[in-house]
């Protein structure tokens, strides 16, 4: 087995792997980084403009200088592969799972996985990681609150079994997704804690035994320590650390990995550049693949390799118009009224955005509903049918916009709109001055008679003001990586409520799809509705949540962008289930880990 503290013979690779910023193309000559390598898959590092490899660590609980995504997601394996785009679970270290009863989920771990030092990987390794996360959540929770919405505890009754206890009955897939999701950091990307490692076992024991007076210092330590450093890490995935340079990380195949016989290349390398856009290095043949930033603009498409092939095609990001709904904030905003939010959404003419898409974005040509555009486009979920009767916005329907404003006491005089207080109706838009869809909206509003004031503030001020609710409108970009993923409890009633300030208690017209409410209204609590959907798996909750979004519009989807990665199919072939190849963040890493998918050098 490899000694992780040793170096290959010859020059120390950190010295020879450096490259000049001016050149940028050739990382290093010869066997270490040559651009014509036939036995190494070279990937662009999306965190390229961030932390240097020599400073990265694989502590999943420390969010700074992290190496738990790159390269951690390559050199560590996870219990299962969960595809948010397909809502599908694929086996990895855990070969089987079942609900032992309504609130108990059991995983069976394979005995074929070993750590890169030869030690057996056991269920206790993952259980330790999850127990640590839950203990820190418990310390952070308010009195009387559940530390985790669904997970109560976890234990390892034997070396190959992990038993997760739930607060509530859940469907099997939802239970697995919650048990293997990221809770405090990047721990969903792999099993990083080795139960008999001195440092991890010490931290684990302290967390399990500490009283409240000791927990603050302990959690502070655990979330700030850089242990282990990437160059020293012992992983459990199909590739192990070979050398860490200033601008490239090299990994060699771990021959004792269960999937090693299916991997026909010996090295995997991750390359850093001056900025985080992979287009030029990919076009120049300096890397074989990139995790994201595809598709590319129209003027670059002709430069792509003949074998250019996309992965992660079912993942996307949304470009949104975001409103300050004004709940529980002191800032006086016109958008505390849902009718005013709806009016602005009606004024917007998204067809005018078509001319500024540049081949990258696509118009979100459906009613606001918080369903991924890729899902609506291919009709792969019943939501594509549910939303057909939902209210359409973005049609430059100035007549309907005027009706809504007049209902709220706004008046139109000489082509200009005035507030109920008689003031000129002006909307402050925070940031987004260079975003094309924001420019289209401003033109639409000005033509309709609503004044706009564009404010551009620095990142710290932007974050402070959106959390304090001190703005009218702003742009937002968010991932749209799956029907369920878009309604995570920590995302909608957590993060989204914190920046849009919507009222968590809402009245929606009924039945679903009838904005006139011929059957009256229904009061829902957004968080409780999401939780009940997770527990019961009843589509009624999901449909009503989509309807709430459509009728409340804290945000409106203006465009969406497929968040794909790419590889050069002239020399490489990737094949496997759509849920892995096109539905998972770490697709370029995961296809090397499992016999469910294949990645081969064919050049």
Automatic annotation (TrEMBL):
PROSITE patterns registered for this protein in UniProt: TAT (PS51318)
Keyword Signal assigned: yes
Domain of life: Archaea
UniProt keyword list: Plasmid, Signal, Transport
Signal found in the keyword field: yes
Pfam families xrefs: SBP_bac_5
InterPro entries to which the protein is assigned, alphabetical: SBP_5 (IPR039424), SBP_5_dom (IPR000914), TAT_signal (IPR006311)
Gene Ontology terms, MF aspect: peptide transmembrane transporter activity
Location of the Solute-binding protein family domain: 88-485
Biased composition (Polar residues): 48-65
GO biological process, one term: peptide transport
Region described as Disordered: spans on this chain: 42-65
Family, per entry: Belongs to the bacterial solute-binding protein 5 family.
Protein name per Swiss-Prot or TrEMBL: ABC transporter substrate-binding protein
Source species of the chain: Haloterrigena salifodinae
